[in-house]
Write a structure and sequence with these properties.
Mean pLDDT: 79
Order of helices and strands: EEEEHEEEEEEEEEEEEEEEEEE
Low-confidence stretches: 1-8, 14-35, 280-288
Distance between the termini: 66 Å
Shape: elongated
Number of helices: 1
């Protein structure tokens, strides 16, 4: 039987998250930290944050939920701590683990609930899955090997964005009777590979906008596959439960950590011309990608 460590494995997320390239700040775990802790993990930055601006962001600016997950070497979850914004010690999590080798996974997001954690299978690595019911949001991720030994370990962990965002701006009016706009989309994933952060399920994703949110822009998130770079989207409007319009937009280009802006007539039941622009957060990704859907 492996020796059990009586002290805690601690993971901490900094209260101030820095942009990529800014040095890590010293962490203070506070009174809850065990002075004899054998492992201290510090998440000192979240890269490419946030989508909307390039200023420094606090933890609350980036996410409302944190999931700290520990897998053993066989891909089986051995422990997990879930936190919500407002919880005591939000950004810090302690674990008691035996000596041995593990995989540490940290996910930061703003979904309505916590994702499902899946153990390794014959065809897939261990994974983390979000659902249509809880929604898909801006999501950040870190994953790395962790060896717990008697001498202790000190790690600095950075989280990076793993989603693509598609922003729709309509140039035609929404039907007067509409009380909801719904986006159904395929080509991305609602589930991530816990080793790489890339999508690993051919998901049928959904996002809905109701009263009070009927004006553009409409934003949807997906976790891209490593080898797939487009979405097929159906935009539908409803009045009560009656379908009013349905428009298919195929081949929308996406890229991890980039915004695709899609402008056009999306409510008339057909696509005459839609202009699509991939908007990077800064110049390091090169020139934007522009795409026009052919006239039907």
């Amino acid at each position: 039987m492996r020796k059990r460590i009586s002290s805690l494995l601690w993971a901490a997320v900094s209260g101030v998250m820095l942009l990529s390239g800014v040095s890590c700040e010293k962490m203070t775990l506070g009174d809850k930290a065990d002075e004899e802790a054998n492992v201290v993990l510090s998440v000192c930055s979240i890269e490419q944050t946030p989508f909307k601006q390039l200023t420094r962001a606090t933890l609350a600016d980036v996410c409302t939920r944190l999931n700290f997950i520990i897998f053993d070497k066989d891909g089986v979850r051995v422990d997990q701590k879930n936190q919500e914004l407002g919880d005591d010690g939000f950004g810090q999590a302690g674990f008691t683990l035996p000596l041995g080798d593990y995989r540490l996974v940290i996910v930061a997001h703003s979904a309505k609930g916590n994702p499902t954690v899946n153990k390794r299978s014959a065809s897939k690595n261990e994974s983390v899955s979000f659902s249509n019911a809880n929604g898909f949001t801006d999501t950040f991720f870190a994953s790395q090997d962790l060896t717990v030994g008697e001498d202790g370990v000190s790690l600095e962990v950075d989280l990076t964005r793993i989603v693509a965002l598609v922003r729709f701006i309509n140039v035609d009016p929404i039907p007067a009777q509409a009380d909801s706009v719904r986006f159904y989309y395929k080509g991305g994933s609602g589930s991530l590979d816990a080793l790489s952060g890339w999508g690993n399920v051919n998901s049928e994703q959904y996002a809905g906008f109701g009263k009070g949110r009927l004006s553009a822009p409409y934003e949807i998130y997906t976790i891209p596959w490593q080898d797939k770079e487009s979405l097929d989207v159906t935009v539908s409007t409803y009045g009560n439960t009656d379908l009013l319009t349905s428009t298919d937009i195929k081949g929308i280009p996406i890229r991890r950590n980039s915004i695709t802006t899609c402008r056009g007539a999306i409510f008339d039941g057909k696509v005459a011309r839609v202009q699509i622009v991939i908007q990077a957060i800064n110049d390091e990704w090169g020139s934007p990608i522009e795409y026009e859907i052919p006239v039907n």
